[in-house]
Amino acid sequence: MTRISQHSSIKVSWGERLVIAFPILAFISMIWIYAVNVPWLDDVDVFPDFLGKFLSSNNWDERWYLLFKPNNEHRVVYAKLANLLHYALTGTLNMRTLTIASNVTLFGILWIFWRIVRDNKLKAIYFIPIPFILLQPQYYLTSLWTITGFQYQPVIFWGLMGMYLLSRQTIVGFITAIFLVFFDSFTMSNGMFYWIAGLVILCLQGRYKELLVWAIFMLLTIKIYFLNFSNEANDLGFKYFAQHPHESFFGFFTHLGGSFDFFTDWEIFKRSVLPTIAGAIMVSIVGIWIIAFLLFSDKLPFSLLKLNLKENYFKRLHQRISENSSNYIILGGLIFLLINALVIAILRPRFGYFVMIVGNYKIYPAMFFAFTYVIVATTWLKEKSHIWIKGIIGLAIVFNILSYGKFLPEVHERRKDLLTRVYNQQYNQIGLGPAIHTPFYDYVNQAMGRLTAQGIYTYPKGFYTGYEQDLSKPLSNFPDLKVDIHPTPDGIVIDEKSLVHGKGLNDGTYLILKSQTRTYLFYQKSPHWWGRTYQGSSTLIPIKTYEPDKYKIGVIHVLNNQVSFFDTKQEVELKL
After folding, report:
1. What is the pLDDT of residues 36-78, one digit of tens each?
2. What domain range includes position 202?
3. Is there a contact between 574 and 546 (Cβ–Cβ < 8 Å)?
4. Rounded to an integer, what distance in angstroms lies between the CA atom of residue 520 and that of residue 555?
5. Which residue, 61, 154, 245, 546, has most beta carbons within 10 Å?
6. Residue 368 · residue 256 · CB < 8 Å
């Protein structure tokens, strides 16, 4: 057995190292395999468009403006700096490389959890559930979407690093924490919630001079952040909240329990039941811990100790919690997550209740789940038999396996969908999110055209690479295949019932729409679980994703890297 570091009293066996490494390597493998060089929707604003405009500007006033300009509801300085750094090192824009890099802060978060376990003098076995809880694909719309990867994960990490430094109670740590939380506020707007967490921590520590300085910097940050900032979207959220307060009440628990959202195909009410119950249970556990830590501290003017001098459970619990300074990190992280959940529950239901458990938010409930476990481990299981922790490890492994079983097929399908869309962008100037002939459509084409003309961005290879000549041939050159066509309000649905779906990286049934001047590809993501063989496909051709014309319909079938072309002998006239 070896020490994890020269300063640590934790010894880690090779068996424990192997178990800890498994979820880490599995997660890294997923990111490496499924990250693609495709800017999607909000990516265009922060990466291709920002980089092109920044490089073409000779005015530093304009460059500073571009760096701090809000993108939707956030100023995303960290993402833009990463974009510039990548360009400085490579001379290119590569969304795959940036996506992989965006996940680095996740491992910084994992390191912070390790420090909490170490500082609580727990054995390494208590750390094992954390990577299984945290490193999984439920939040793939963060870990595999570049813009959200440079927002949601780093906003947690930089803020937690600030709380970690405050917990050290040194002047250098305090100054660095101010810088980190200031930077975090411009990584994503909810980073400002860490200022509130810092106020609470400094108050608990009795560091009132530093508290005053912290408050001044907090107010300055808020003033700078909201300078020339539009709050119209938030105003609409508050109006909806006033009319539907019950959605926000339940949405708070649903969001925090989002790690238990395994039935994503169910209608929203049934789907939300398990996350809401799980969220309520975890909030109850966290609530007991926070009450003991905060309300029974003699550092606070509203301490319950002044109301009740008798010995009770909360007093004993407070003594146990306050013994270790690393619990300030936990408290800071929980304050951030609880305020964040409250804001989401108030402002987001107007888009639909499903937003409480939407994929790109799920890093937050994963963090809340991990913190809840850490609270239980450091507060109640610390002196218990290892049977308890071994049982929790087993449950964490089951949770991780279920998460991969449910969500990895979605990750698998999303990659094929994005590579099909980027083909249409490359050859038809439509595919990265906008509807055709809209302001956003023109904006995307200008941003992409600016970088491709300079060779800064190169379109990625897909399954179709090397088959461009086949795609240019008349469909009548290929074997026949029967399909059925159904018009729907969302577009045209084309059903095929004979081709088998494989499990390979590019395996699937792709639709060809071919006119005299254009060739489009479409792919319909399949919700199927792995481990079963499926036959047939149903592909939607969404409205406003093509130029109006008469199109012949063809099919590409990929199975075990074997590519086959078919002619359906059918034609469809598509209009806007």
Report:
1. 999 999 999 999 999 999 999 999 999 999 999 998 789 999 9
2. 2-34+103-383
3. yes
4. 11
5. 154
6. yes
